[in-house]
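Obj.: predict assembly geometry.
Materials: sequence records (below).
Method: joint structure prediction, all chains together.
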Amino acid sequence: MTTSFPLLTVITLLPLGAAIVTALIPKRRLELVKLVAVGGAVATAALCAYLAYDFATGTAAFQFQTNHLWISSFGISWHLGVDGISLFLVLLCGLLFPLSMVGPTIHGDQKSYLIWMLVLETGCIGSFLSLDLFLFFLFFELTLVPMYFIIAGWGYENRAYASTKFFLFTFAASAVMLVGMIALVLLHADANGGKVTFDLLALTSGNPIGYTASVLIFLSFALAFGVKVPLFPVHTWLPDAHTEAPTGGSVILAGVLLKLGTYGLVRFGIFLFPQAAKDWAPLLLVLAVIGMTYGALVATMQRDLKRLVAYSSVAHLGFIVLGLFALTSQGLSGGVLQMVNHGLSTGALFLLVGMIYERRHTRQISELNGLQRVAPWLAGIFTVVMMSSIGVPGLNGFVGEFLVLVGTFITHRWYAVVGATGVILAALYLLWAYQRVFHGEPTGDNVTMPDIGWRDRWVLVPLLAAIVFLGVYPKPVLDRVQPSVNAVLAHVHDVTGYHQPAVATAPPK
Amino acid sequence: MSAVLLAAATSNPPPPASPGPLQNPSAGSTGQLPTLHLPHVEYHFLLPFLILAGGALGLLLVSSLVRPTWRRGLYATWTATAGVAAAVWTWHLWGQVVGHGEVPHPGPVSAVAGALAVDGFSLFITITVCAGLVLGAVLAESYLPREDLDGPEYYVLAMLSASGAVLMGSANDLIIVFLGLEILSLPLYVLAAFHRHRARSGEAGMKYFVLGAFSSAFFLYGIAFVYGATGTTSLAGISTFLANHVLPSNAVLLAGVALLIVGLGFKVAAVPFQWWTPDVYQGAPTPATGFMAAVAKTAGFAALLRIMLSAFPSQAENWRPIIWVLAAVTMVVGSVIALVQNDVKRILAYSSIAHAGYILLGLEAATVTGTIAHDGLAGSSFYLIAYTFMIVGTFAVATVVGGDGDRRHRIEDYRGLGARRPVLALCFTVLLLSQAGIPFTTGFVAKFNEISEVIGREHAPDYVLGVIAMLAAAIGVAFYLRIVLAMYQSPVEDVPAPDGNGGGVAVLSRTRVGIPVSIAAVIGVSVAFTVAFGIYPDPLVHFAERATLLF
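Observations (raw C-alpha cells):
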C-alpha cells in the first residue's frame, strides 16, 4: 500500500504551509487571508478524505508509511503511518478544523487566530500519524503553543489564568513522559545491541526491557496522557480551559486535543507496554469510573452551560478510557469509536453553546429560557446533538457506548455496571439543562433572540450527517478499526499470554 | 605541524589520532637546568587569542587617529571583524585538529609547553565566544549612541574580555585558567558599570567586582590546595599524578577541588553562588548583560568542564554528587524565583541561573573512560552554543524595548508589543520559547540532549535528576509565558470588549518602538540559528560531539 506520493507528510505539513502563507499576507487583505487559511484547512480535509478512500480495509498494518532519518545522532526519524485507530482521528481533525475556523464568530485579530488554528492542525495530525516516539512528542508538545495562544488571545474574562493552567498541567506531565521516553529508548538500546532508536515499531519488537522499568515508564506515560485525557484527579485544568477558550478553541480542545491522551494510551501505553498496561489496568479503570461518575455529577450542578459541556467531557473521556483498558476487542473498538463520537457531538455542542452566547451574551443557564420558541432550528439541532451525546440508539453515541459496555462487561463486570450508571447520569444533566434552557415561555432578552442563520446551519450539517451516519451504519468505521484493535490485542497476547475471554464462554462468577 | 609537540601527559595510551612522539612535561621540566628554559610558542595556535587581544589594543589606537565623522559604526565593525577573523582562523585550526569531514588530520595537541590545549573543545568554545562577541558588539552599535555612551572603550573591553574567555577555554593549566578568568572578568566589571548615567549600573559593577574578586580568591586558593596535594598545576600533570599515586589522605585535594568549583560556580551563576546575578543583570547596560551572560557563562563552563574531566577524572565519584546537588538546586531555585519577578531582566537573570543548572547536567553525566570524556561533554557544549545565540537575541529584544535610558524592563512595559511590533514580538516569543525548551528550537534540543545524557547513565539518582530537570523546565515555561502573555495583552488595563469576548490583542498604540538595523540583524541571526538548528540539529550536534577534550 506504499505509494510514491508522500500523502501523510503532505497532510501533516499542508496546514503549516498554509499558516506560513497566511502569515505573509497583509492584515488588511482579510478576504485573502481567510481564503488561504480556510482553503488550506479544506484542502487538508480533502486529502484526509482521499486517505480514508484509499485506506485498505481488513489489514492491521500501518499504511502509507513514510520513513526518513531525521536526526541521525539521536536515532530519530520522520516516520509516519496510519492504521485503523489513527485514521478516523485524522479524519476528525480534517473535519473539525475547517468548521471551527469558519463557524464561530472570531472577535479580535482574525488573521492570527486562523494562523494558530492551522499550526494547531499540523500538531494534532502529526501526533496521530507519528510512528516515532520523539516525533510524536514534538507534535504533542507543539499543540500546546497554539492552543495556549488561542485561549490567551481570544478567550473570555479569565483567559490568562486558564491558558497558563492548561499549559502548565500538560507540560509538566509530558515532561515526566519525556524522561520516561528517553529511559525507554536507552534501556531498549542496551537490551538490543546498543542501537538507539525512537521508532515505535522497532521499540515494540526486539528484547523487552526489564519489568520494573517498564512499569515505571508506563506510569510516566500514563501520567502525561492522563492529564491530557483528563483522568479524574488531574482533570482540573479542563473546565477552566474549556470555559475560557473561544468557541473554536473549545471545539478543537474537546474534539481533538483530548483524544491525544486517549490515543496515546492505546498507541504508546497498551501497545508499547503490554505487560505493564495489563497489570496496571485496574488503576486506570478505577480512575475512569470515578471520572465518569464525578464528571457527570459535577456537570449536573453547573450553572454555566459551557462548563456543563466541559464536565460532560470528563465523564465521556472516562468512558473511553474504561473501554480501552477493558482490554477486549469490543471495548477497544468502542473506545476508539467513542473518541470520534465524542469529537463530533461535543464539538457540535460547543459550537451550539457558542451560537447561543453570540446571541444572548450569557451562558448562565438561569438567564436562558424558552429558546425553543424563538430559535427552533437551534433547538432542533441541539436536541439531535444532545441525544447523540447521551447515547440514544440510532445516533453515533449509542454504538460506541454499547461496545464499551459490552467489552467491559466481559472482563470487568462491575465496572460496566457503574459505567452504565454514568450513561443515565448523562441523560440527567443534559436533559435537565435542555429543559431549563429551551422549554417554557421565553422571558426578558430571550424573547428577541434570533434563530441561527444559514451559515451556522451549514457549519452544523456535516457534524449532524456524521452523527446520524455513524449511528445507523457504523460498519465502515468498525471494519477499519477492528483489525488494528485486534492487532494491538494480539500484541498484548504475544507478550503477556493474556487471552481475551470470549463473550459466550465468559464464566459466570 | 612540524613543531615539536608537547602533548599532554597521560597515564593512558594516547588516542590513536595523536601524532608524533609524546613527551611527559612533568618528567622533562622538573630537571635542574641552570638556564631559563623558554617554551616553544606555537603562535598559530594562539592566533585567535592574539587577534582578539590585539584587536582591542589596535582599536584603541585607531580610534584616536581617525576623524570623528568616520567613527560611526567603525568600532562595532572593527570588533565584529576581529571576532569573525578569530572564528575563521579557529575554523581553520579545527580542520587541523579535528578535521573537516573525513580528511586525515593530526589530532589534538597541547601548545606552549603544555599550558594550552588545542583540541576540539577549546576550538568549539573559541567559536562560541567569538559568536557571542560579534553579536554583542553589533548589539551595542546603536545602543551606545542612544544612551550617550559612545566611544571605543566598550568594544575594547568586550574584545579583551572575549580574549580572556578564549584563554579560559583552552587553558590546560590552572594558572592559565586563572589568567583567563581575570582577563575575562576585569573588563566585565567595567562593562557592567558602563552606563554612567544610571546609578544602578555603577552599583551592578561594584557588586560584580566585589563578589567576582571573592570568587577569584576562592579559585586561587583552590589552585593552591590542589598544588599542595599534587605538586603541579598542569591539568594533565594532576591527572597523571593522581593516576600514579595513592594519596594518604585526599582531604587537601578535595578541599582544593571544592574551592575550584566554588570559584567557577560564581562565574557561571550556579546556586548557591548566584546572589550577584539578578542585580548585575538588571543594572548592567542591556547589551552588556547579553554579552556577559553568553561569554562569561561559556568561559566559566569551559574551564569547569575541562578541569573536572581533564584533571580530576579519578575523583569523579567524589565530585559527581556535588555537581548533582548543584545542578538540581540551580535548576529549581532559578526557575522558582524567576516566577515571582516583575522585571524582565531579572527574570532573564534567574532563567540564566536555571540554564546553568542544565549545563551542569552535562558535567554530572560526563564519564571518562580511558581517554575519552563522552556523553555529557557534548551535551554541555551544544547547550553553550545554543544558549549563546538565544540569550544575546533575547537581550537584543530587551535592548530595543528598554528604550531611552534603558529603563522600561518591567513586564508591563512589554504589554501590547504584539500589536505594535508583531515581528519583534514573534521573534521574542520564539527566543523565549526556545529558552523554555519548546520543540523545534535549539533550546529544546539542548535540554533533550542534556537530559538524555543524564538518563543514559542509568542510575537511580540520575533518573531522579532527569525528572527534576524536566519539572524545573515546566516551572520555567510559566515565567517565560508570563512575558509572552504580556506582549499579547493590550498596553492598558485589560478592558474586555462590550460583548465580554475580550479583544486580547486590541491595538492601543503607544510610542512605537524603533528597531535599529544592527539590532534587527542580531535578533534575526539569533532567531534563524535557534529555529534552523532546532528543526535540523544534526550538523550542530555533530559539531558539539566532535568537540572532545585532549587527554
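Conclusions so far: The beta strands of chain A are 63-71, 76-82.
To do: check interface contacts against the pulldown list.
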